[in-house]
Design brief:
Elements: E1 48-52, H1 56-67, E2 71-76, H2 84-89, H3 98-103, E3 107-110, H4 115-122, H5 128-131, E4 137-140, H6 146-158, E5 162-165, E6 168-169, H7 172-176, E7 180-185, H8 188-193, H9 195-198, E8 202-209, H10 213-242, H11 246-254, H12 261-271, H13 281-298, H14 303-319, H15 327-336, E9 348-355, E10 365-372, H16 374-379
Parallel strand pairs: 1-2, 1-3, 3-4, 4-5, 7-8
Antiparallel strand pairs: 6-7, 9-10
Helix pairs in contact: 10-12, 10-13, 10-14, 10-15, 11-12, 13-14, 14-15
């Protein structure tokens, strides 16, 4: 199966990729560690940790781990300017290859951009599998291809290594605060053995099932988010043309049945005209494509999602791949010749608090808390993180 579009995306590790091809499908397998079960008795859980990919996500994960007292011993990124904060937190830990990271680590974490980059960093003479010891664990936080995820996990199992997929959601702002959500796929006992490792970065930690289940979940949530952005832009245009105060309109929808996480966290970015949630639009288009391929695999028609996907590609082609992923709203704004701005959102940012549920078995829900904080707002913008590319 070939990707429907050629994306020119610069990776967190590796060279620019022009043509992308999906991996060959393979059966789902549970991949249990041979030697990474959690110590019992008086032994503390203290694995050595390596990170491959130190862009916005990888660096934030590494910093949170060090603050939690975990041992980050090695990391790498192809961009010489990436990881400056991680370098300050863990001096002299930067190495040249993913293999060197793996050779120094019990657990290797990847946070990469697109499936071919994940594959390149895992396989080959300088890849993770070449350096990771038997019983070592690879955790992939990338949003990547379903078939490839299963295939690489199966290879790890054959090598005597282990793998967990762990795509993340919630936005870079929350990750920097250790409040993101993570979906984990893979062997349940292996997940339980390393549960403590996830607690430094994530408020909500959900085991979804076998390898591949977390990837499906994450891609679908990104598709939902994109659909909400397109619909949000139209809703804002309706209000603007009707002469409604945009700040009041924002609050009205927040307190209605039409509210959503995207409305709460991306409308302010439209009203302050940055259109920048800290995520590149070409990566969101990559996720749309992954979702399309999943729909083909599982025989699910994606008519509504397909329409939203085309709007995203249209925006990417117009403004470029490295603009913020809220640019479909700017596309409508420019086509209509009506500016979707509003006062009071210049220094807007947010955090989240967990709201406990009264129903047994249900996880807490993320509730958005709006903030006015210039420094925090600036820190998550793409202009402040050009090293990601």
């Amino acid at each position: 199966m070939a990707w429907r579009a050629m994306l020119r995306i610069s990776s967190g590790v590796g060279n620019m990729v022009k043509h992308v091809r999906l991996a060959t499908p393979c059966p789902i397998q549970s991949c249990r560690s041979l030697a990474t079960s959690r110590p019992t008795g008086s032994q503390a859980y203290d694995p050595s940790i390596g990170i491959v990919g130190a862009g916005g996500v990888g660096e934030a994960i590494g910093l949170n781990l060090t603050r939690a007292g975990k041992r980050v011993v090695a990391w790498t990124d192809h961009n010489p300017h990436a990881g400056s904060k991680l370098e300050a937190a863990v001096p002299n830990a930067r190495v040249d290859t993913a293999r060197e990271v793996a050779a120094a680590s019990d657990v290797v974490i990847t946070a990469l951009t697109i499936p071919p980059v994940v594959r390149d960093c895992v396989l080959g003479d300088d890849g993770i599998f070449a350096g990771l010891r038997k019983g070592g664990l690879w955790i992939d936080h990338s949003t990547t291809d379903y078939n490839q995820t299963i295939e690489l996990a199966s290879m790890a199992h054959e090598n005597g290594q282990s793998a967990l997929e762990a795509p993340i959601t919630g936005g870079l702002t929350l990750l920097q605060e250790g409040k993101m959500t993570v979906f984990v796929g893979g062997d349940k006992e292996l997940f339980d053995a390393h549960h403590e490792l996830f607690q430094a970065n994530f408020n909500t930690i959900l085991h979804m099932g076998d390898m591949g289940t977390a990837t499906v979940t994450k891609v679908v949530t990104n598709m939902f988010a994109g659909a909400h952005v397109v619909l949000t832009a139209e809703a804002l245009m309706m209000a603007k043309k009707a002469g409604i105060n945009m700040s009041s309109y924002f609050d009205a929808v927040r307190n209605s049945a039409g509210n959503s996480y995207v409305w709460e966290t991306e409308v302010p970015l439209i009203l302050n005209q940055t259109f920048d949630p800290g995520f590149h639009i070409d990566l969101h288009c990559k996720d749309w494509n992954l979702g399309y391929e999943m729909g083909r695999k599982f025989g699910v028609p994606l008519q509504a999602f397909g329409l939203m996907e085309q709007t995203y590609y249209k925006a990417m082609y117009k403004y470029g791949g490295t603009v913020g992923s809220t640019h479909p709203a700017k596309l409508l704004q420019d086509e209509m010749g009506v500016k979707l701005d509003g006062e009071g959102f210049e220094n807007w940012t947010y955090t989240c608090e967990l709201v406990k549920q009264d129903m047994p078995g249900r996880t807490p829900t993320m509730a958005v808390v709006h903030q006015d904080n210039p420094a925090k707002a600036a820190d998550t913008k793409l202009d402040a993180r050009s090293v990601d590319r």
